[in-house]
Amino acid sequence: MANKIRWALLSTANINKALIDPIRQAKRSELVAVASRDAAKAQAYAQQNGIPKAHGSYEALLADPDIDVIYNPLPNTMHSEWTIKAADAGKHVLCEKPLVTTLAEFDQVEAAAQRNKVTIFEAFMYLHHPQTRKMQELIAAGEIGQIQQINGWFHFYLPAERATNIRLSATLDGGSLWDVGVYPNSASIMMAQAGGAGALPQTVWANKIVGESGVDVAMRAQLQFANGLVAQISSGLRTPFREAVHVIGDKGAIHLIEPWKPGIAGKESRCLLTKTDGSELVITTPAINPYLCEVEAMEACILDGAAPVVPLSLSRNFLRSALAIHEAAKTGQVVTL
Predict the structure, then answer these.
(1) Which of 154, 165, 198, 218 is the Cys-Cys partner for 236 at CB 3.0 to 4.6 Å?
(2) 188 close to 270: Cβ distance less than 8 angstroms
(3) Cα separation of 72 and 87, whole Å?
(4) b/e 80-95 (16+ beta carbons within 10 angstroms → b)
């Protein structure tokens, strides 16, 4: 514990694949265990992925004294329960986004972190990446002037035939906003804050398309911040893959070509900065895995006492905005925060 933190995977979820290699690549981390509610499945997964320990229940994993931090990739409706149980077992938690889907759950998670003195943060890998940090610095420094507009989107195609996918489950809080819409929602809040337009939108309007399973398969929202800044964001499960973020100011604009997983393919990421005089500058960021960045952030929190890059106070704002989007889409009314 003095030199390394010991990680465990809370389930054999497919998304674990994004974290296994980064945990092993991080200099101050090691992957020591995995759990499943099926002991045989846990054992097979551990053997397949070279993980030393396999636990046949989530409770057994949390009781293991040789684990410091849990990665929680469970379905959205299980995030709060098992994040709280992990905290009460003295474990730090990296919880997959969305951290929770209600403010009541959020209060309970925050209280668990405080009473157990553990670090809990939401797994927004892109917020830990140097590309995102650089964009925030440029905006805060006034490189594009007063921000007027933010456009962000994240869409991919998930056909109705894949009905068992948890993203299409209403009972598991699926839908495009909770799955991929949380990315442009959080990015808008971060960029608005960097530009001095406040930590939350003031009003929210939204419209959705509901699919055959009762979840939103498309969400379109407009967030109005202070100083006249407007963010227009969208998410979807029924279009070809597309992603981007544009931040437009009165002196220039920034185009993030690969905003959510920069560097994931082993290539440097690029952003385009365009000024009103017509000049253009391509800003490159070295190929760094964003998931490695969030693993290293957890190392810094636990071993160095650093503050989280994504503190719970920030996640609360992300949640309040997302809930306002859902309410506006449901009621057809503008929601004031």
Answers:
(1) 218
(2) no
(3) 12
(4) bbbbbbbbebebbbbb
Burial of 73 (0-12, 13-18, 19+ CB in 10 A): buried
Residue 233 CB neighbours (<10 A)? 27
pTM of structure? 0.97
Q: Compute the distance between CA of residue 248 and CA of residue 77 in angstroms, rounded to an integer.
A: 36
Q: Give the tokens for residue 321.
A: 């905005």
Could you tell me where the DSSP H helices lie in 89-168?
103-116, 130-140
| Residue 285 host element (H or E) | strand 280-285
CA of residue 327 relative to chain centroid, distance: 21
The Cα–Cα gap between 138 and 253 comes to 11
Give which of 302, 268, 296, 295 is closest to 282, Cα–Cα. Answer: 268
C-alpha 230/C-alpha 227 separation (Å) is: 9
Residue 22 preceded by cis peptide, ω within 30: no
Sequential pLDDT tens for the chain (337 residues): 469 999 999 999 999 999 999 999 999 999 999 999 999 999 999 999 999 999 999 999 999 999 999 999 999 999 999 999 999 999 999 999 999 999 999 999 999 999 999 999 999 999 999 999 999 999 999 999 999 999 999 999 999 999 999 999 999 999 999 999 999 999 999 999 999 999 999 999 999 999 999 999 999 999 999 999 999 999 999 999 999 999 999 999 999 999 999 999 899 999 999 999 999 999 999 999 999 999 999 999 999 999 999 999 999 999 999 999 999 999 999 999 9
H and E: helices and strands count for the chain? 10, 15
> In angstroms, rounded to a whole number, what is the distance separating the alpha carbons of residues 132 and 183?
12
User: For residues 16 and 22, what is the distance between their CA atoms, to the nearest angstrom?
Assistant: 10
